Amino acid sequence: MNTWGNKLKISIFGESHGAAIGVILDGIPSGLPLDMDFIRREMLRRAPGQNALSTPRKEADEVEILSGVMDGVTTGTPICGIIKNTNTKSKDYNKNLLRPGHADFTGFQKYGVFHDFRGGGHFSGRITAPIVFAGAIAKQLLRKKGISIGSHIKQIYDINETSFMDCSISKELLNEISLKDFPVILDKIGEKMKQAILSAASEKDSVGGIIECAVLGLSAGCGSPFFASLESVISSMMFSIPAVKGIEFGRGFDFANLKGSDANDPFETDGEKIFTTSNNNGGINGGISNGMPILFSVAIKPTPSIAQIQNTVDTEKMENTTIEITGRHDPCIVQRATVVVECGTALAVLDSIL
What we know:
- The protein is an alpha+beta fold.
- It has eight helices and 18 strands.
- The chain has one domain (3-353): Chorismate synthase AroC (Chorismate synthase, AroC fold).
- The chain has a five-stranded antiparallel β-sheet with strand order 1-2-3-7-4, covered by helices on one side. The protein has a five-stranded antiparallel β-sheet with strand order 9-8-10-16-11.
- 26% of the residues lie in helices and 24% in strands.
């Protein structure tokens, strides 16, 4: 299925090398003035072809809004936005050679000979552009409720920077990071990360990393137990981002190394509000927000399209062979995926609030 959500629903459509990609966003109330400059800025953060760290494929990613907005204000009806594909090179792809790490094989198994293999088709990371458009609208509605969302690159390959868990985070810090071409807290660490990406590219290889995301200003009581837990809703959206292979909230897998006395978040009050003095659980207990910042991290796998010779299968001949992938690909997609994670989170949080 290509539709997600409960009270807020999004449906994505299109292929990487088709005429256009797009989204239908249903559930945004009427009367929200859209900041189109903000939407363009969010789209630009994800757009390809901006520097040596990303694919040379250049796409403007300008969104044409077909419905749901009149005179710059939402009408309450479904919002449809499309993004034209203007720079495709389908000749770079061979439908008979399965690319390791891609959805070529599984797509073929599901859709047969009609599977669109060009640039990954509907499985392509390019389809995250409509998610950014929808999420940029959700961000604006959340902002009116005092909720901010931001992220940073926590790790590239084996290079780590400080975590939101271990520093003082604020809306100002999140905004400052979002304005950077390479969204990190510590620019010196960011330079080392860039070098690791360029080094992998020079070896015809790629690297992955970790993105850490924060939600500030969400009051206690958002979410539900079990199947509609805040973790469940956020995770379902995160795993809709093609390169995400893991997620953890708060201390996540580090909980396995702790005792309860270290893992618990003690409560305090200032006489008016109740809060915790630590945030090991990432702002969520029992699937419901506890008023502390929502903190989680996602693992992004290395870009599977690499120019090294790899073993594969020729599906037409049913023979073992090799493939050397050509075309235009990112040596690392982590820096472009930060805004996708943020916008996906905005959709998940808004759906939980509604």
